[in-house]
Design a protein that fits this description.
Pfam families: Beta_protein. This protein has 374 residues and is α/β, with parallel strands linked by helices. The chain folds into 2 domains: 16-251, TIM Barrel, CATH 3.20.20; 269-365, no CATH class. It has helices spanning 16-23, 27-30, 49-59, 71-74, 77-81, 88-96, 100-111, 129-137, 154-167, 183-186, 189-202, 230-241, 294-309, 321-331, 341-357, and strands at residues 36-39, 64-68, 117-119, 143-148, 172-180, 207-213, 224-228, 247-251, 269-274, 278-284.
Length: 374
């Protein structure tokens, strides 16, 4: 399944914004996309099967890559202090992270999912890594290995690569995850390109992918502007340095890799408009973020949307759900227009996914019109 001609592997969080954005993509776009879902509980659900149901609703009966969101358990102070007092989904995810017998719980869990679901190797504990590789490979779905370049030390990465070579895995995807990055990371692209080249010689049958996010955690002090998509720059530079190696683009769908804790008060009304190489945005401040009326929300989101639609970067020929939502907000056509930060995030991610999926295409020549429902 990994060998199919996918050109985009976004790592998407299990959240309402990401799932809605993906769900509203045209079906023909979903066919070319292979998302990575780090599994955790869905909103307030008690069991992990609700998460799988929401993923299936967003992408349909198509292949996707399954990983585990370890932060859901290991960075949850309430759960760690009182495991039995929290929703059972926390214990369910925690069980998948147990390394015993080559992560046998994880292997069995993936085995019970649809055959189109591709597993990710768990590398928190490497003691029985070879056993886990053999067990997951035996599912015959392919294997994804996610190397967290900034977190995993050289010794850990060497151990993983050496064990993969010894295991002679056929269908293999190596995902180099740089997580949150800045411009300085792009300047180091030569060493990352050399890394991919070395790995491709050691694992000649492997496909590679680079993933990162440069979306800012704060927009304070700015009214409007543009932000370069450094993850796209990093990927382009790496590809130039290792010609002949298949390297697929990946990112966080225009979300942060490590999401910051939200502060107090309602965030300002901001609408983002993704382009292929940068994000444009317009931001409007509420008079008092602790006391915002529905009228003020509608008014400021309408003002932001209107400014974007009138800008020189607006493309009226891009007919995807996120664009239509911005147009609805300009007209305040119905209750489904953008009136919250969460909906604005879903709109941005939807447009970003489409832009990056069709990075090499001329949008004016594409048929992006598709019927959709709220």
């Amino acid at each position: 399944m990994i060998n199919k001609a996918y050109n985009y592997l976004p790592i998407l969080a299990i959240s309402t914004a990401e799932m809605s954005a993906l769900e509203q993509l045209p079906d023909k776009s979903k066919d070319l996309l292979l998302p990575v879902f780090p599994l955790k509980g869905w909103v307030g659900s008690k069991t992990l099967d609700k998460t799988i149901s929401r993923i299936n609703m967003s992408i349909g009966l198509r292949p996707w890559i399954a990983d585990i969101d370890s932060d859901f358990v290991f960075k949850n102070k309430k759960y760690l202090a009182d495991p039995k007092g929290q929703r059972s989904v926390f214990r369910e995810v925690h069980k998948l992270l147990e390394p015993a017998n080559g992560y046998v719980n994880w292997v069995q869990y993936v085995a019970n999912l649809d055959d189109s679901v591709i597993p990710t190797l768990q590398t928190h504990n490497l003691e029985q890594l070879g056993q886990q590789i053999q067990s997951l490979s035996a599912l015959n779905r392919g294997l994804v290995v996610r190397l967290k370049i900034k977190q995993d030390g050289a010794d850990k990465i060497n151990t993983i690569i050496r064990t993969l070579i010894e295991s002679k895995v056929d269908k293999l995807l190596i995902l180099l995850d740089f997580e949150d990055i800045k411009r300085s990371d792009v300047l180091q692209s030569e060493q990352y390109g050399m890394l991919v080249s070395r790995l491709s010689k050691l694992l000649p049958n492997a496909i590679f992918s680079t993933s990162a996010s440069s979306f800012p955690s704060s927009f304070s002090g700015s009214y409007r502007g543009e932000l370069p998509i450094y993850e796209r720059q990093l990927h382009t530079a790496v590809c130039k340095l290792c010609e002949g190696v298949r390297v697929i683009y990946s990112d966080r769908g225009s979300a942060r890799a490590n999401k910051p804790n939200s502060g107090g008060g309602l965030p300002p009304a901001r609408i983002d408009y993704p382009l292929k190489n940068d994000w444009r945005y317009v931001r409007k401040e509420f008079q008092d973020s602790s006391n915002v009326t529905e009228l003020e929300k509608h008014t400021l989101y309408k003002e932001a949307a209107t400014e974007i639609v009138k800008s020189n970067y607006w493309n009226p020929n891009l007919r995807v759900w996120g664009v239509q939502m911005i147009e609805k907000t300009v007209e305040l056509r119905d209750k489904y227009c953008i009136t919250s930060a969460n909906r604005a995030t879903a709109v941005r991610i939807n447009i970003h996914l489409y832009q990056q999926l069709n990075y090499l295409c001329d949008f004016d020549a594409l048929d992006t019109e598709e019927d959709w429902e709220d």
